[in-house]
Amino acid sequence: MAKTQKPSRSSLAVVELSVAIHHVFHAPVDKILWDVAEQTYAHKLLTGRRQIMQKLGEPNGHSVPAADFESEFDPFGAGHGCNSISAGLGMAVARDFKGKRDRVVAVINNETTMAGQVYEAMSNAGYLDSNMIVILNDSQHSLHPKLEEASKTPINALSKTLSKLQSSKLFRRFRELAKALTKKIGKGMYEWAAKVDEYARGMIGPPGSTLFEELGLYYIGPVDGHNIEDLVCVLNEVASLDSMGPVLVHVITKEELQVGDNQINAVANKIMEGASSSDTIPCGTRTYSDCFVEALISEAERHKDIVAVHAGMGMEPSLHLLKDVFAEKFFDVGMAEQHAVTFSAGLARGGLKPFCIIPSAFLQRAYDQVIHDVDRQKVPVRFIITSAGLVGSDGPIQCGPFDIAFMSCLPNMIVMAPSDEVELSHMVATAALIDDRPVCFRYPRGALSVTEQSFGSGIPIEVGQGRILAEGKDIALLGYGSMVQNCLRAQSVLSKLGVEVTVADARFCKPLDIKLLRNLCKNHSYLVTVEEGSIGGFASHVAQFLSLDGQLDAGIKWRPITLPDNYIEQASPKEQLAVAGLTGNHIAATALSLLGRTREALLLMC
């Protein structure tokens, strides 16, 4: 793990658990599913992918295709979390239909228990009563939602004995026999015995454990996740039970690394602190998130009703600062994006100004709430879409290419994107003043491209107004969001080739700056639009306007540059932009091709 320079805290916490699972269950015949990719590195090493993992530490190792990471040992993709129980239950039901006898194991963790889909899946698993095993990797040592108020779940001789007893075949058969006898005696006796059973198990289990019983899963635990013998003993018992229904094994782990070699320990600690890959932002470099936090804090001084709601997996360091400053005005709901959106709508209806901060890839899960609870009712929620576009070594799992398309198609939504940190501060100020409809803006992950200095409070922008950054007569480049900077780089390249370029910053995808578009079409014969988003986004709105306004009939030659219609695998940010065709040279080559200078365009790409 030290060689690969990948975040390893989560995977190191489940090394013993991964070994025990593969010792007891026989993958790939038995299906082993994981909720989050960060926990799967030990699993991948144990299933023949050590060489591929080591390539990640090489200079060009980030470009290892995702297909090489997947194998027959991965029956379902580990993505944002909360999908393993649902997928595992589907596989268990399919197994039962086909008359097979393989086991299904789903591993979840504390973060994913914040997501509603986990409980939907557990409830359905309890109802269907299909045989499957859910393993809860509890690194927080508590099932209590407020960790600061919770007592740690103890692991001692008594808890070990009780866990082994709960998982034993003899105890389970005795319990089933007792259920059958009380049913024969009468319904009242059966219900009384069930209450006694629930009360007794609640007394010996940790706080919160009876929730799983209520959902229909047989609870076993807590089990020491770093004791191989205990894990193997419990898992062997669970694996040997037929017609047992769904079972949840509560495993306690520690996200701490203890290595004898001090040098390895130092490297590993550096990894765990965040230096995870070559696209890691150097210490001291300001990011878009830093500037957003600075701007929002400044804006909150003028608008006392501003509150912040955050959802998603983990928080960026700058958002921790926002949490400290906002105190009770900051709400981190974890992996509960649907709740975050409707909660924000409720805050807005109550007279506050909520800024709902969600990474692009995670906002996808809350789209129904965005439509019905916010946009349809014109509730003024301000969506801050982070990690928009390409995200380097996190690849397609955390990539955010779709938000421009799925937010801009909503009738009441104002959609904008800043081209730099100054524009970001202006858009924070603009969003704070919009009280009659929802608004969103996106910004990418990573370092700033313009300045490293602090700036003052933002100045509100007129909604739907773009701007021209440079003027030329040969061709116009219309950039959206962070791609404006690459348009300026393309202009620099083209100017050396004698091409005079106009560069415009659209600012808004919806509403479009119609006056700006008409002027660009009037004064130029060629137009190129550039965005770090999927097909169907900003370029689609431009195409709609150009066609309906008759600009295409009038002779304007237009080319859109978007992300390609496929998922871009993990790589460094520069490599990903090159693959996507969004670098300054790619934009310049498109412009030259449009101007009929094909040979120069090809030479530019060599």
Question: Can you give a write-up of this model?
Answer:
- With 606 residues, the protein is α/β, with parallel strands linked by helices.
- It is 45% helix and 14% strand.
- It contains 27 helices and 17 strands.
- Strands 7-6-8-9-11-10-15 form a 7-stranded mixed β-sheet, with helices on both faces.
- The longest helix is centred in the N-terminal third of the chain and has 18 residues, at 187-204.
- It is elongated, with a radius of gyration of 27 Å.
Topology, please?
Blueprint (H helix, E strand, L loop, with lengths): L8 H5 L1 H10 L6 E4 L6 H6 L3 H6 L10 H4 L14 H15 L5 E6 L6 H13 L3 E7 L18 H11 L1 H17 L1 H18 L4 H6 L3 E7 L3 H13 L5 E7 L9 H11 L15 H15 L3 E5 L6 H10 L3 E3 L4 H13 L3 E7 H4 L3 H9 L6 E5 L8 H4 L4 H6 L5 E3 L4 H13 L5 E4 L24 E4 L4 E5 L3 H14 L4 E5 L2 E3 L3 H10 L2 E5 L7 H11 L8 E5 L11 H8 L3 H11 L3 H8 L1
Parallel strand pairs: 1-2, 2-3, 3-5, 4-5, 6-7, 6-8, 8-9, 9-11, 10-11, 13-14, 13-16, 16-17
Antiparallel strand pairs: 10-15, 12-14
Helix pairs in contact: 2-12, 6-7, 8-12, 9-10, 14-15, 14-21, 16-18, 22-26, 26-27
Subunit structure: Homodimer.
Enzyme class: transferase
Cofactor: thiamine diphosphate; Mg(2+)
